[in-house]
Design brief:
It comes from Pseudaquabacterium rugosum. The chain has 3 helices and 5 strands. The protein has helices at about 15-30, 80-95, 115-125; strands spanning about 60-65, 70, 75, 100-105, 130-135. Strands 3-2-1-4-5 form a 5-stranded mixed β-sheet, with helices on one face. Strand 1 and strand 2 form a beta hairpin.
Length: about 140
């Protein structure tokens, strides 16, 4: 008997199916991609030569404590309702126009969200549209 050892054949890699799959993926990506065209408005802003207002807006400071108590310009407000706070804001604004009054809210970090929302609602009821929040920088000093 003739027993010969067979030589192992070299593996053959067929790239045709791989190329077919890549072509299908490429066609899918090309068809599924949306081409968006972003358009911008070309705006030329008008210029003005008016001087800046020498009058600074009147500031009304509202403090919100952690337990929900309010004070307007360092004067405690009796009660925690929005109506009482709105009356105190109107009184602190005096007879000034609403555009000339800036409301600054200084809320404690532990104050509830509802307490701050009550201040914003009271400002709306008092007709004070300019509202800003006081913060501290990370090093502990006021900005």
């Amino acid at each position: 008997m003739n027993f010969k050892r067979r030589r192992p054949e070299d593996p053959e890699i067929n790239l045709i199916p791989f190329i077919d799959v890549l072509l299908v993926v490429l066609i899918f990506l090309m068809l599924s991609t949306t081409y968006s065209r972003y358009s911008e408005l070309q705006i030329t802003l008008p210029s003005a030569r008016a001087q800046a207002s020498a009058q600074t807006p009147r500031e009304v400071q509202v403090s919100v404590a952690a337990d929900g108590r309010y004070s307007v310009n360092q004067q405690p407000v009796a009660g925690q309702s929005v109506v009482v706070l709105a009356a105190a804001l109107r009184e602190a604004a005096g007879g000034a126009r609403a555009e000339d009054v800036a409301l600054i809210v200084s809320a404690d970090a532990m104050a509830t969200h509802q307490s701050v929302v009550n201040v914003m609602d009271a400002a709306r009821r008092a007709g004070l549209p300019q509202l800003s929040f006081a913060t501290q920088s990370n090093d502990g000093s006021a900005p």
